[in-house]
Each structure stands twice: as structure tokens, then as C-alpha cells.
Amino acid sequence: MPETNQNIGLYRQGVGIILLNSKKKVFVAKRIDNAVEAWQMPQGGIDDGENELQAMERELEEEIGITPALTKLIYTFPEWLTYDLPQDLQKKLWQGKYLGQRQKWFVLEFLGNDSDINICTTIPEFCEWKWEDAKNLPELIVDFKKELYQTITTTLQKVI
After folding, report:
1. Considering only CA atoms, which of 88, 95, 107, 138 is closest in space to residue 42?
2. Residue 150's domain spans which residues?
């Protein structure tokens, strides 16, 4: 959801990546550490000293083995989007420091082949991946991110 006058310091700064193949399908992957059947797009935190674009490129490589040379930036969401974690997760993740995440989202065209995607990275986060229709994204994600994914999907339909 678009952010409002929230206390930004209570949200972990991060990036999200919408990777599109030549058929305009979206890359989604199933997290290794999630007990429920949920798929998500690559995302992650912004490290100290990084800008949003650098974080996006690093996360893409860390999570699915894709280098910037295999992508083309199509669109950057102008606003930051936020989501809140459920209270039980707020206490467990990020040492209880954050209520959720504040993310800058990017839409990228994937220029490579499916064989270039590698979820068996140094520290794997995913156990499966697939290309999915954008309209299905909100139904694939964990409940607490559904509103975020609906916002993303609405914007994405205008961009592609």
C-alpha cells in the first residue's frame, strides 16, 4: 500500500523486484522458510551505503542468480510502498525493531533464458519458481502482503 504519514523509522527499508519475461509473465518463487503455500517476488533490505538501485541489483543476484546484464529497467514505482507484519512476526524478525517494510519497487524486463535463473544460491531463500500472470499475484502471497500485491498489480497493469 502507498505510505502515508507513518513513522518511517519503524519500517525496514527495502526493495521489491517485478521481473517480467518476454510473455509479460512475472517471476515468483516459493520461500524455503514458509510453512504455508505462498509465492513472492524477489525482495530484500537496503544495506548501509547502498541506494535503492544497488540494493535491487544485489538482491536479484543473491536470490535468483540474475546479474544486471540480464535485465532492463522498465519502470520504478514513484512512491514507496509499505506493509505491516503480523504482531507475532514483528517480535521475531529483524530483532523486533520494525513493524514491517517500506519498499521501493522496480519493474525489469528479463533478457536471459530460464536456464540463467538459479535459486540454488549461496544462501538459498526459495525452493521453487515459476512465471505467473500478474493478475494472480495477490492470490499467491501470504495474507499480510495481499494489499501490497494488489497495489503492485494495479500499477503493473498500467505499465506493461
Report:
1. 107
2. 8-159
